[in-house]
């Protein structure tokens, strides 16, 4: 039986995500309201909320690079990139495909939220030039940034966690114990996912007849972005927190765009910002209450007596759960669960670990609130006057994500079990 506290936490979690997915109220109201209920009921101490639950580094990166994104757009560099792409592509569906391929490549080495924020002005510029629906650009870009979460050791926190817990090295992601590794398997899934975009947008045959033209640009914002990304990469080696880097580049961007200072601050997507802040508190409480551990115990005692079935269960339950929750605490909890299950079956744990990690990494794509990049992309759409109907989002995200996970699942089954 669940205790009263666990029932309250679970009910608040469900209500929070139901409201957020319905988009009947501002998503920030849903998550901050849920966090407030958890604090008032004593399930979330205020000190824990402020100093343990909220990932200030993520919020700092988001705010700072959103400011950079604004001056980047004003620099007309996105217009130049859009013009170069359109000058070399003849059909609109391939424009989307190339933008998403570039997004996936960059996200394998960079913070995916930062990549989405960088690509957003380009997508906006391209859609305006083609007079096309921005939805068909922003949502594919967001999910493309998330599909590479296990392509490299540094693509996403769960991959880093797996490497730290098991002693894997960067090259082990491609060739490990004489077999094709997790990163190489993920690459196949990424290619399948990107291929689904060509199928889904097969009817977007609008001809692109633009010619390359000179676009007057300024380089300051581009230089700032490159230096900011470099600082994110090397800063931790010198004790500089990522959030400080984000705040730093944001303040510099405010100075660069000081003529539009009021617009930059007022038009910032505070709705998505505060939604993520609230979600951090809700997920932290879910984990602290022991509900994730309860789930892990259920897996252990589920009575599944076949490694093949257990792999399938772990892959697809991870997809389902990561559609709604942070994949970091889930990964930390499930690594020892996978190892214990493997020991019980008398097999190596790699197949279960890989399946769980791919499921939780890509599964966040399923819903608009399943991954931070999705939230921000939808916020950009709403800022530009677009609604984000859940049905339309799922029509894009489900084939894309399921195709990627299924391809990886089959390869793990063949190669690692």
Description:
This protein has 417 residues and is mostly helical. The protein has one domain. It contains 20 helices and two strands.
Strands, helices and their partners?
Layout: H1 4-22, H2 27-40, H3 46-53, H4 56-74, H5 77-88, H6 92-107, H7 112-130, H8 135-146, H9 157-166, E1 175-176, E2 179-180, H10 182-200, H11 220-234, H12 242-256, H13 261-266, H14 270-288, H15 291-300, H16 307-322, H17 327-345, H18 350-363, H19 372-383, H20 390-416
Antiparallel strand pairs: 1-2
Helix pairs in contact: 1-2, 1-14, 2-14, 4-7, 4-11, 4-12, 5-7, 6-7, 6-8, 6-10, 7-8, 7-19, 8-19, 9-17, 10-20, 11-12, 14-19, 15-17, 16-18, 17-18, 18-20
Summarize the structure.
By secondary structure, the protein is mainly α. The chain contains 20 helices and 2 strands.
Give short descriptive properties of this protein.
417 residues; mainly alpha; two-stranded antiparallel sheet; 2 strands; 72% helix
Q: What is the mean predicted local confidence, pLDDT?
A: 86
Biggest pleated sheet = 2 strands, antiparallel
Helix/strand/pairing category: mainly alpha
Poorly predicted tracts of residues: none
Span between termini:
36 Å
Order of helices and strands: HHHHHHHHHEEHHHHHHHHHHH
Instruction: Give a count of the beta strands, DSSP E runs of length 2 or more.
Output: 2
Strand content: under 5%
As a percent range, the share of helical residues equals over 70%
Total domains: 1
Oligomer state of the chains in this structure: single chain
Rg over CA atoms: 21 Å
Q: What is the number of helices?
A: 20
Coarse morphology = globular
- Please list the strands of the largest sheet in the order they lie side by side: 1-2
